[in-house]
From TrEMBL:
Start and end residues of each stretch annotated as Disordered: 275-323
Intracellular or extracellular location(s): Nucleus
Alphabetical list of Gene3D superfamilies matching this protein: 3.30.230.10, Histidine kinase-like ATPase, C-terminal domain
Coiled-coil zones: none
Keywords: DNA damage, DNA repair, Nucleus
Biased segments, Basic and acidic residues type: 280-292
Protein name as it appears in the record: DNA mismatch repair protein S5 domain-containing protein
Family: Belongs to the DNA mismatch repair MutL/HexB family.
Domain DNA mismatch repair protein S5, chain residue ranges per copy: 117-250
A Pfam family assignment: Mlh1_C
NCBIfam families attached to this UniProt entry: mutl
């Protein structure tokens, strides 16, 4: 304020013998008059602090000229102070126009919200107020999701709103989010919709809503004045609040019907059934109340407020849906034997597959692994993680380009499942560090042979100063020297004879393309930083994740039916990869750059068809 007005502060504590006054300009202490120092000066004053702002916008003529008349600006100030007085009933507020003898607003301290509304907005509103408290811990019967996000931020709300007996020409909404007066057209529209079946057409309610939510979930940079805000899980929170308020309204209506029925049964009222006055009630005389004469028909039906959901807001899918084919895996014939873990070799394969296998986080005391796990949580994008966690798989769009469609709520997204899988398998590697299951290779292939195949196919090896044999020797020497570390941390077993006996298994019911095994082993030599512990673990797990990424397959157009490789890849992506993504992926913001794109929104599609 000191940048656009003359600002002074007068303050005094109970222990001080006098008050102190300081003047500010452009954020710094300034002298009150020329020739004086800028230090605070003693003066007369009461206990407390008084902040005085004068000559507003004296140095910004453009903003000064944008101000309207004094009466209109004062009306706006009074409106804001009244709303904050309702929100802070424990604080005394007073607002008086310059030159006026009495204040236009004066509230006592130590009050409550309902009493503050009575003092400011009148007894008519106060006597019809209903109260409701809503928290995120309460279950919502109307939620469209199967599971509740355990990591979603908690929130709470308090609401005071008028019953069906109060009717006004214009809606009055006092909305506070984290004790800040804001505006939200979406919240206002949703709250007004509650009264559509309660109030007559053209009538509006009075509502006060205070919402407490995690500050990290709020975006205040929606409007230049910071009056409008957006926050995470906005649709779900609004829906929960509206459901609770509607439930309170219904209960209040039922209690009124109960009182009405009590009057009927006691003989005080009689329902007239004549054709001219059907449905009207009249009061019976005292002598007829005990005789039972004039008793009306049976008790009327309890009034209920139907909850109407527009078609454009309906979500017609559920995570509980499961197809029959998901229970029977489609395996690549070349991987049926090698795709079994060492722990499963002595067991009979189950007739059906349960994909909801929990992957527990291993206990690890290495500071390097702990720091890598913490780094994953720091880059988490909450909204994208929620989309992946509560998605509905629609289908694979292009297997050769790793493109799939998923649905979340009323929106459709095109995702690169290859990029999502690479991040997932890296995080699964960190999650199971030092406690991997194994894929046993029988018969075990030669490490040198596999590396030689990859080096021979690598075009960059021909431009190296080293021969192919020298490159192979170096890579094999690096891996052989670190056999003990590989088997201890990653369950990757290489025998003393140089035979690859097992590789780590990151996800059950998902077998990587073993055609990529030579390339994986070759890249472990130059791509892994073996000199630094943290960088070594990170780069190794990144290479392991790259090895596990579904390989883009080019479909055979000459064949009318998909090949066995393509059928196996499609089954693994839909029934193994995407359920694991929903359960374990902590999505970083980097995936939003090009790997997750919104392609459709149900309400927008309805608008398009309405124009047609």
């Amino acid at each position: 304020m000191s940048f656009v007005a003359n600002l002074s502060v007068t303050t005094k504590t109970k222990a001080d013998t006098c008050a102190w006054r300081a003047h500010y300009a452009d954020g710094h202490l300034v002298p009150a008059k020329e020739g004086f120092t800028a230090d605070p000066k003693p003066c007369a004053g009461n206990d407390g602090t008084t902040i005085t702002v004068e000559n507003l916008f004296y140095n910004t003529p453009t903003r000064l000229g944008a101000l309207r008349g004094a009466s209109e600006e004062y009306a706006r100030i009074l409106d804001v102070v009244q709303k904050y007085a309702v929100h802070n009933p424990h604080v005394a507020f007073s607002c008086k126009k310059a030159g006026s003898a009495t204040p236009d607003l004066s509230t006592p301290s130590g009050s409550d919200t309902k009493q503050a509304i009575r003092l400011i907005y009148g007894q008519t509103i106060a006597k019809e107020l209903l109260h409701s408290d809503i928290t995120s811990s309460e279950d919502s019967e109307s939620t469209s999701r199967m599971d509740v996000d355990e990591e979603s931020p908690s929130w709470s709300a308090e609401a005071y709103f008028t019953s069906a007996n109060y009717q006004a020409k214009k809606t009055v909404l006092l909305l506070f989010i984290n004790h800040r007066l804001v505006e939200s057209a979406r919240i206002k529209k949703a709250l007004e919709a509650i009264y559509n079946g309660v109030l007559p057409k053209g009538s509006s309610p009075f509502m006060y809503l205070s919402l407490q939510i995690d500050p990290e979930s709020i975006d205040v940079n929606v409007h230049p004045t910071k009056r409008e805000v957006r926050f995470l899980n906005e649709d779900a929170i609004i829906e929960r609040i509206c459901n609770k308020l509607q439930e309170t309204l219904v209960n209040q209506s039922q209690s009124r019907v109960y009182e009405y029925q009590t009057l009927l049964t006691s003989g005080i009222l009689e329902i007239q059934t004549s054709s001219k006055a059907k449905g009207k009630a009249k009061e019976l005389p005292p002598e007829e109340r005990d005789s039972g004469e004039g008793s009306g028909p049976s008790t009327p039906a309890i009034a209920t407020i139907p909850k109407k959901t527009l078609s454009k807001h309906k979500v017609r899918t559920s995570q509980k849906d499961r197809t029959l084919e998901s229970m029977f895996p489609v395996l690549n014939p070349s991987q049926v034997v090698t795709g079994r873990t060492a722990e499963e070799e002595d067991e009979e394969p189950p007739p059906a597959v349960r994909l909801a296998t929990e992957i527990k986080e291993s206990e690890c005391y290495l500071s390097s692994v702990r720091s890598l796990r913490e780094a994953v949580g720091k880059v988490k994008h909450h909204q994208l993680t929620e989309i992946i966690e509560n998605h509905i798989f629609v289908g694979i769009v292009d297997l050769s380009r790793c493109l799939s469609l998923i649905q979340h709520a009323k929106k459709l997204y095109l995702v690169n499942h290859g990029a999502l899988a690479e991040e997932l398998f890296y995080q699964l590697g960190l999650r199971q560090f030092g406690n991997f299951s194994r894929i046993r290779l029988e018969p075990p292939p030669s490490l040198r042979t596999l590396v030689s195949l990859a080096v021979h196919a690598e075009e960059g090896a021909k431009n190296s100063r080293l021969s192919e044999d020298q490159i192979v020797d170096r890579i094999v020497e690096i891996l052989m020297d670190r056999r003990e570390m590989l088997v201890e941390y990653f369950s990757m077993t290489i025998s003393s004879e140089g035979m690859v006996e097992s590789i780590p298994l990151l996800l059950k019911h998902y077998t990587p393309n073993l055609d990529k095994l030579p390339l994986f082993l070759m890249r472990l030599g130059p791509q892994v930083n073996w000199t630094s512990e943290t960088e070594c673990f990170e780069s190794f797990l990144r290479e392991l994740a790259y090895f596990y990424v579904p390989e883009p397959l080019i479909p055979d157009k000459s064949s009318p039916s998909p090949s066995e490789d393509e059928q196996s890849a499609r089954w693994q992506i839909q029934h193994a990869l995407f359920p694991a993504l929903a359960r374990y992926l902590v999505a970083p913001k980097s995936l939003l750059d090009r790997d997750v794109v919104q392609v459709a929104n149900l309400p927008d599609l309805y608008r398009v068809f309405e124009r047609c």
